């Protein structure tokens, strides 16, 4: 077993994973701290507080790792980015759906971070993060099922016998008779709808409270893009006579007082858009119908451009912190 005396420096992927998680967890603490202060449902309040405690524990551990490496801590998000006196922006029901989707994002991120970690303390950290988040996921899902607010993915019937694919038209989609969606395709479409709906709700809510017209317009544009994507995905499922997930837009209150800084809200949306590109790419990689493949390609291009515009706003506002980056050797040489 590796002797962790910290003589072995953190690798670039290890540093980047810690830095990214620090940014996301400090943002999450701000978001959930306001949310928990507006809830009256004891079950919702308990699960939100538990999520906050997990994020705070992660932040403390990451600070220890980065200090040991003498790597500067990112600023991330602080109490300056949250207004605890602002009225509720979301219903308690939506907060559960939000936390459910964000927990899925967290599980995926921790798995990727574990897979790119070499040092034993980093591996142990992400294994622990996965354990904690898996427990959180189970608790959220249990509450949602108990309250009857979870939208289950579609069911498919059991075939009479196993079968193999023996015709090339299994891959068709643009012309001729389309084959029914397979279970993998159904799952990716359904869960991408759920994630996209949550982002659309956030953008709708953030557009109500943002102090900047530029950022407000950006959120409105994003909400329209999300709603269009949801309509496309819904139409694919509806064509197969399959159910679609619930729309949560009605769970936004009519408040115009912002609980969060424009910096936090914009960072949150840009981060979610980047994650969406990854999910679409994963879905695209297992598509076996050409029309779905092309849809994902087109939608990825659209949200990729949207993400770039959001990143440019962050840069122009001076809000985008630079992640761990390799040295510019030419620039260093020119300083002599």
What does this protein structure show overall?
There is one protein chain. This protein is mainly α. The chain folds into two domains: 12-147, Ferritin (Up-down Bundle); 170-316, Ferritin, core subunit, four-helix bundle (Ferritin), CATH 1.20.1260. The chain is 64% helix and 0% strand. The protein has nine helices and no strands. The chain has helices spanning 12-36, 42-68, 92-115, 120-147, 183-209, 213-239, 262-285, 290-316, 329-334. α5 (183-209) packs antiparallel against α7 and α6 (213-239) packs antiparallel against α8 (290-316). The longest helix has 28 residues, at 120-147.
Task: Briefly summarize what is shown.
The chain has about 325 residues and is an all-alpha fold.
Using the coordinates shown, work out and report the CATH topology of the largest domain: Ferritin
Low-confidence stretches: none
The percentage helix is 55-70%
Which superfamily, in CATH terms, is the homologous superfamily of the largest domain? Ferritin, core subunit, four-helix bundle
Number of helices: 9
The description of the largest β-sheet is:
none
Number of strands: 0
User: N- to C-terminal separation?
Assistant: 43 Å
Backbone structural class: mainly alpha
Radius of gyration: 22 Å
* Mean pLDDT across residues: 91
Q: Could you give the order of the helices and strands?
A: HHHHHHHHH
The CATH class assignment of the largest domain is Mainly Alpha
Number of self-contained structural domains? 2
Name of the CATH architecture of the largest domain: Up-down Bundle
User: How large a portion of the residues is in β-strands, by DSSP E?
Assistant: under 5%
Shape: globular
Transmembrane segments: 265-287
Pfam families: DUF3231
Organism: Cytobacillus spartinae
Protein name: DUF3231 family protein
């Amino acid at each position: 077993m590796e002797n962790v005396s910290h003589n072995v420096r953190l690798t670039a992927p290890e540093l980047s994973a810690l830095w990214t998680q620090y940014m996301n967890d400090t943002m999450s603490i701000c978001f959930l701290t306001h949310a928990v202060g507006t809830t009256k449902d004891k079950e919702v309040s308990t699960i939100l507080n538990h999520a906050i405690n997990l994020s705070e524990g992660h932040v403390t551990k990451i600070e220890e790792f980065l200090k040991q490496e003498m790597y500067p801590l990112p600023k991330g998000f602080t109490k300056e980015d949250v207004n605890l006196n602002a009225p509720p922006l979301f219903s308690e029901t939506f907060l559960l759906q939000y936390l459910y989707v964000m927990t899925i994002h967290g599980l995926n991120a921790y798995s990727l971070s574990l897979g790119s970690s070499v040092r034993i303390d980093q591996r142990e950290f992400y294994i622990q993060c996965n354990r904690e988040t898996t427990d959180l996921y189970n608790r959220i899902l249990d509450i949602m099922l108990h309250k009857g607010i979870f939208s289950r993915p579609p069911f498919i019937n059991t075939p009479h016998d196993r079968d193999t694919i023996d015709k090339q038209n299994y891959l068709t989609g643009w012309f001729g008779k389309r084959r029914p969606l397979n279970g993998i395709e159904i799952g990716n479409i359904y869960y991408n709808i759920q994630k996209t709906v949550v982002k659309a709700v956030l953008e709708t809510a953030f557009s109500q409270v943002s102090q900047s017209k530029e950022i407000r317009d950006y959120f409105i544009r994003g909400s329209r893009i999300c709603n269009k994507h949801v309509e496309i995905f819904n139409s694919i499922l509806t064509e197969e006579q399959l159910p679609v997930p619930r729309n949560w837009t009605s769970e936004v209150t009519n408040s115009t007082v912002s609980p969060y800084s424009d910096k936090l809200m914009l960072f949150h949306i840009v981060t979610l858009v980047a994650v969406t590109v990854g999910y679409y790419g994963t879905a695209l990689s297992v598509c076996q119908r050409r029309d779905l493949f092309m849809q994902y390609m087109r939608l990825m291009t659209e949200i990729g451009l949207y993400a770039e515009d959001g990143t440019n706003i962050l840069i122009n506002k001076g809000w985008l912190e630079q992640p761990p980056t390799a040295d510019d050797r030419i620039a260093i040489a020119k300083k002599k």
